[in-house]
Structure to design on (370 residues):
């Protein structure tokens, strides 16, 4: 229908023409989205977003229902389904608290047990064996072979010299004697010294950190065969007048026991040999050919001892034997039985103390044993 010419147009309604259709479409889209959301929730999780509110269950009162069993059944809680096969981890309660391993600052007392040695005790406390030896000079007199079961040893907290202050001692003299700087002694906290004006009292125990001194050696003198150019003899029940000649060594050595591991002291400055594991009565073999220059008991903690001069500058020594199978002046050969292991002399358990000497000086047996 065409408009009449000259007639004015009706005014536009912006809300009706422009905004109402958009609002209608938005409501429709929102409803469709909500419906889709409800369907997804129901499909994936079994959840009903809008559940119908049911009428509350009316529990009959005794006035309404006198049947007690019916009342009890309506009020009873649902039963609990127990799961019989439950897989779980059982962890026992540990009442012990983990204590941090702090460094010691005070000396401890250790009671010597069977099988102990200065070396093994020092290893247990992570110290050098010299530290333990020096701290117990009044008991051991610098001789590790004097260790005995039941002896109470002082174990210093760190390596060095645990020193008893003497009358008229001076701090610089003590430091020089043990080859450390004065500041090391003064600045060690457990010594509890005033750095500006240190005071010492006779009998006071102080720690000389990293201190060092020479050991007093307790050793059996080297015994030489006749006409060796270095004759030296010692008295004792195992000594003898040596013949002018005898077996000579090959220059190679074998282990003197069946075991090839230690049971006690290793080679260190206070113990110039090794203690090889050997049960009482285990055979002890000559490490090389040679002449027996001593076979019998002897002092110094060695007990029953055999010494062999190999005629080429080498000597070997076998100590703490339970019994001896050779005699002084006899030639013996590599691998021959010369005795049986034991624990005679100063010893905390059966083993073989084995020494190797060259030109009268001590060498580490590990250097020559295969």
């Amino acid at each position: 229908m065409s408009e009449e010419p000259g007639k004015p147009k009706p005014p536009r309604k912006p809300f009706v023409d422009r905004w109402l259709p958009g609002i209608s479409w938005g409501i429709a889209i929102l409803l469709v989205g909500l419906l889709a959301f409800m369907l997804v929730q129901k499909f994936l999780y079994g959840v009903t977003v809008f559940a119908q509110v049911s009428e509350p269950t009316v529990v009959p009162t005794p006035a309404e229902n006198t049947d007690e069993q019916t009342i009890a059944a309506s009020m009873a809680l649902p039963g609990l389904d127990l799961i019989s096969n439950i897989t779980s981890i059982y962890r026992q309660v540990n009442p012990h608290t983990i204590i941090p391993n702090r460094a010691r600052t005070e000396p401890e007392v250790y009671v010597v047990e069977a099988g102990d040695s200065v070396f093994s005790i020092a290893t247990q406390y992570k110290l050098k064996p010299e530290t333990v030896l020096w701290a117990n000079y009044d008991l051991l007199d610098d001789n590790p072979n004097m260790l005995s079961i039941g002896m109470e040893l002082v174990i210093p907290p760190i390596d060095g010299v645990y020193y008893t202050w003497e009358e008229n001692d001076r701090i610089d003299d003590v430091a020089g004697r043990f080859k450390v700087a004065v500041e090391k002694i003064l600045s060690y906290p457990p010594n509890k010294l005033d750095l500006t004006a240190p005071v010492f009292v006779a009998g006071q125990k102080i720690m000389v950190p990293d201190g060092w001194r020479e050991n007093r050696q307790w050793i059996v003198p080297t015994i030489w065969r006749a006409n060796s150019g270095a004759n030296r003899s010692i008295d004792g029940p195992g000594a003898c007048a040596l013949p002018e000649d005898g077996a000579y060594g090959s220059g190679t050595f074998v282990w003197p026991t069946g075991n090839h591991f230690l049971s006690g002291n290793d080679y260190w400055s206070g113990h110039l040999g090794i203690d090889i594991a050997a049960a009482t009565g285990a055979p002890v073999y000559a490490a090389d050919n040679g002449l027996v220059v001593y076979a019998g008991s002897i002092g110094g903690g060695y007990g029953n001892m055999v010494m062999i001069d190999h005629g080429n500058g080498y000597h070997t020594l076998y100590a703490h034997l339970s019994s001896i199978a050779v005699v002084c002046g006899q030639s013996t050969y590599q691998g021959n039985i010369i005795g049986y292991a034991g624990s005679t002399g100063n010893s905390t358990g059966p083993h073989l103390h084995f020494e190797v000497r060259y030109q009268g000086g001590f060498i580490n047996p590990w250097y020559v044993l295969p």
Observations:
- The chain has seven helices and 14 strands.
- Residues 219-370 form a domain with the Glucose Permease (Domain IIA) fold (CATH 2.70.70.10).
